[in-house]
Design a protein that fits this description.
The chain has helices spanning 2-18, 31-34, 145-152, and strands at 36-49, 58-60, 72-76, 79-90, 96-111, 114-121, 124-135, 138-143, 167-172. With 173 residues, the chain is of the alpha+beta class. The longest helix has 17 residues, at 2-18. 16% of the residues are buried.
Length: 173
């Protein structure tokens, strides 16, 4: 009986000491956490938008056009590649949408949840910073109105979609 009590006490102690309590403290992300290939699964606008002029607006712009289907990011060492569509609104009322995949490459760093990407295009260097969230295999970031206008080239457009304030990008590995 003493042996059974000793063994039981030992097992209970081992189980209790072997279990650590869950730590809900967010872990700091590092550059290695985002390395690899990421593919766009959602592109969410702050308001419903009708890019394809079919009379139906969506906040997820991937539902509006297949232009975003090949959008991808790849982070390796200190360099990145970004494939994205260059959108062009044409037609009498800017109601025709065309897109051409564009490739940007550059250097990046990732510290304290902030992704800093530097790209040189036509002898002009641009540095962008975005706050990144990583949730399981989903990488998320949001760009501001100024970046939206540069990305969609809406600055001089009369297109009805020129009022977008933010775009949230969600990529999966």
């Amino acid at each position: 009986m003493k042996l059974l009590k000793c063994v039981s006490t030992f097992l209970v102690s081992f189980i209790l000491l072997g279990c650590s309590k869950d730590d809900n403290t967010p872990q700091a992300l590092s550059q290695s956490d985002i390395q690899g290939g990421w593919f766009l699964v959602e592109l969410n606008a702050n308001e419903p938008t009708d890019l394809n002029n079919d009379g139906i607006s969506n906040t997820n712009l991937r539902l509006e056009t297949d232009c975003f289907s090949s959008m991808a990011l790849n982070f390796e060492n200190d360099t990145y590649t970004f494939i994205y569509p260059k959108l062009d609104f044409r037609g009498e009322n800017n109601d025709e949408l065309s897109c051409i995949d564009t490739l940007n490459t550059g250097s990046y760093s990732f510290e304290n949840g902030t992704l800093t990407a530097t790209t040189t295009i036509d002898n002009s260097t641009t540095t962008e910073r975005v706050s990144v969230q990583l949730d399981n295999d989903r990488l998320k970031f949001t760009i501001t109105r100024t970046q939206v206008n540069e990305y969609l080239d809406l600055g001089t457009s009369d297109n009805e979609n020129a009022d977008l304030e933010t775009l949230e990008f969600i990529f999966e590995k």
